[in-house]
Amino acid sequence: GSPFKQGFMNRKTCSLVLLSAVALPLVMALDTEPAALRIEVDASRVTGIMRGGIGASWHAIEGPIHGPAGSAWGANPPPEDAAAWREVFRHANWLGLDWCRVELEQRTYEPERAQFDWSRRDMRVLKRILDWCQQNRVDVFLQQMWGNVGWNTFPEWREDPAWRVRSGPLSLDDFAEGLAMLVQHLVKEKRYTCIRWLSINNEPAGWWLRPPNQPMPLTPALAAVRNALDRKGLFLPLSGPDWSDLPPLEPEKIDFDQFIGAYDLHCYQANFDGSTGGYPMTLAVQRLREWADWAHARGKPFFLSELGTMAFGWQDSHPGPGSYESAIKDAEMIVRGITAGVDGFNRWSFINRGDLDGQWQLLDTWDMKEKRLLKHCIPHPNAYFVIGLLSRFTAKHSSVLACKVAADNAGPRQHLFAAALRSPGGQLTVAVVNDANLAWEGTVTVQGLKKAIRLRRYAMTPGQRDRSKVEIKSERTFKLASNAPVFADHFPAMSLTVYSTYDLAPSDAGVIAE
How confident is the model at residue 432 (pLDDT cuts 50, 70, 90)? Predict the structure, then answer.
């Protein structure tokens, strides 16, 4: 079919309009005569302000985790290796990560009941990460993934390392007091003002269990942690429920609203519309919009605190999560999520061994064959550059602008998606996403301009796939003014194109905050 669904709806967007294109056998073929595109941005109409941004998971867990405990451990440099950390931070700066989910476990700081150790290796790694976030004004979503401490594990699982990470706490009071002590140390004593949100457990349906193998209720724990924080004068808001995989909104299941200051979910199964595997992204976007509307109606942000793609394979050292197709799908998820009202996006993950449950990393720091740290870290192909193309040109807390996409001879299926953002400092970014196997010609219109601007064009296309060295540079400049707000361009197949008033050279750091 042709690239568009009939009857487009107005969409929230950004000073960024994105076009990503993905096709291959997983996406239905298009007609040989694609429709002409019209992308229309109204810079005078703000539809929302993101209370987060675009970033990636960054764990501070170095001790091996036994059993199917995900990939949230290992591959960080030793905490004392300042040169290696400078190299890692250079890449974090290039990517412009501005909303990062920073992860730890209770073993990180309280290996025994009421015995807190702020000098453990994992704590020193955590402080390396938080120091960079503080210096660069990154918003941190602090996440306790699990306990992994024998002293607060159910007795049936205490001697089993695989179940210690899945066990909910035997004592909720001790759990809450320990977490409150950590927050007090980080926020009051170390003065990390970058920490903006706290999530008490990762994906509780699988990592918050009680014998024989059942999920524990999460609400009593949220209440206990909220009370423990309040007693210490710590007003850091909690986020929840951290459910996966992007479940439908069922208000009858939400009995915890009074204890949280933000909502967040995870998503890995959404896939291109018309493809096989997972569920259609249109369904995912519908759910995102419902959750965002629910949260916003209560004055709270809604975050997609984990996103990635399993449709192209994962587990062990499978390259699927970092494939070009996955990267473009993730970019489309972010773009369409912005239009649905999502406040922040966290890609899984910045650093990852890549040999635990798939190659999820944006940055390669680990030699998967030799099982040791690399001497120098390098960009992971596709994911680093595609996600970076989005995160480099977006500042946290940007305004979402009205934007719509239209086409002549619209058919039954839409393949092109757009979003537009204006940064707090007034920078505009426009983009066009094409998840099909044909290129289009089209126009971009930016109405409501108060002054003339220059939009620079940056892009990722299939010709750059699987490369560890890619130059993201301005390819062309378009001048716009209130009396001349339109330009024409070519939108490559299976590509992500970003237009921006930011003028970034290939080696410049990305935008984090203004």
Answer: confident
